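Practice record 12: protein with flavin-adenine dinucleotide.
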Amino acid sequence: MDFKDFELIYKENRCEIKDKQKVVLKLKEILGDSNVSTEEIDILAYTKDTSLIAFNWALQGQIAGLPDIITWPETVEQICEILKFANQKKIPVIPYGEGSGVVGGSIPIRGGIIVDMKKFNKILEINNENLIVTAQTGINGMNLERYLNKKGYTAGHIPQSLYFSSLGGWISHRAAGQFSTKYGKIEDIILSMEVVLPQGEIIDFKTTPRASTGPQFDKLFIGGSGTLGIVTKATLRIWPAPEKRTLLSYAFSSIEDSFNATRQILRENVYPAVIRIYDQFETIRHFPDIDNAKDKVMVVFVCEGNAKLVDLEEIITREKCEKNSGVDCGVHPVEHWFDTRFKVTETSSMPTYKIVVDTIEVASLWDNASNVYHSVLDSVKKLEGVIMITAHVSHFYPNGVGIYFTFGGAPGKEQTDLEFYQKCWDTTIKAVLKAGGSIAHHHGIGINRSHWMESEWGRSIKTLREIKQLLDPQNILNPGKVYVDTWKRGEK
Ligand SMILES: Cc1cc2nc3c(=O)[nH]c(=O)nc-3n(C[C@H](O)[C@H](O)[C@H](O)COP(=O)(O)OP(=O)(O)OC[C@H]3O[C@@H](n4cnc5c(N)ncnc54)[C@H](O)[C@@H]3O)c2cc1C
């Protein structure tokens, strides 16, 4: 295979490694021969993440980024050595979980060394009294949850990508699972971490239920897209497996009615584990056979936990839905959701029809939620080539929501897939910011959102950049992400 036959998407600022053979030899000295590869088949496997646009590129003989060397460290000390050596040689290092990220976080846009965390897959300790588990961060999400379930617990973190994402990836993108309304996002679940800093120093944080020991420095390493450190170990909160689960669904005449009902439930301090609002377009797509939901907005609920509390949650949930003219649709829509919740073939098959499709999740306080929803739909549907723009709302707080948009369309004759994709992204984010929302709820920043960081963070971005500079003066850890404008963007 010759990589010259592929068109490389991210080629600007790509670093060339001098004396590559010597670098490979040194890495083999650190890691052992079998944990270092420059085989073409391995290089190819790490050229992209699961950004949907990368499927369009693959079908057209294009690759996103081109790494030079792949490594699979087995100890924290090996990671330290890799980083120290990479600093000496000024070689980019890209942490890699399972590549399920959808914003380009693990794409090696400057080339360099991939540090695949797969061998950091051990569960180190579970403590029933404290309700905590400690695991290495390369562990596959499903393996962790399956282990906990067998012992009678759950971590409550069930992203749709559970089967193909890692604990380290969740931490790096500040992920959210389908049951987040009860159990929280990953930043609520993580109690402590061990991190290797960009220059190869190990730091760790004490596990404590809460503290008042100075700033929450540990939080700096949650959400950094792997640019501020490589997280090697984490302690998570866990919960006893739920005693009871109740499934409910209601259809509403408008998105506003569904917002009012769900907002009022949360105001009562009631947290159904799952709440999902499907706008009328997604309701048609997902629940075509539910008569009561025709032309309506479907909301599914899962209440779980202690049986007596679940019964109470059911009463309050029903009361608020009915007060807002919700029509009871029974358990079937929720069972259907359970059956299909990990199915993603619908979107991932679109690129084969030359359709460019993607999802963009954002956050909003309640008083802007309806505005954010309508503003995005109104502005994206006006774009040339857009075939669909729909939304569901899947993460709920007493103060607001996470809204998840899906767009699809065909680029015009003069437009590349990337240009069309960027136009849809930029239009969405611009509408969100104008409506007072926040640009990302759980997929992280990576490449796709880096050029919106200034708008999102305002004057604080300067300090964040200074922290990056302080921790990583040579900018070797996942360069080109989060803090810099990586997109060749058209109109701002
Ligand atoms: C079909 C589908 C469904 C999805 N559903 C959800 C969902 O429900 N909720 C959700 O939040 N996300 C979801 N995602 C997005 C994705 O699964 C998450 O972003 C996930 O957290 C990425 O994990 P990963 O292990 O695959 O990380 P990767 O994609 O390998 O890496 C992501 C980022 O983390 C960095 N990184 C990885 N490991 C480490 C480490 N140990 N230390 C430091 N940095 C590291 C990488 O450099 C990169 O910047 C979905 C994706 C797909 C394709």
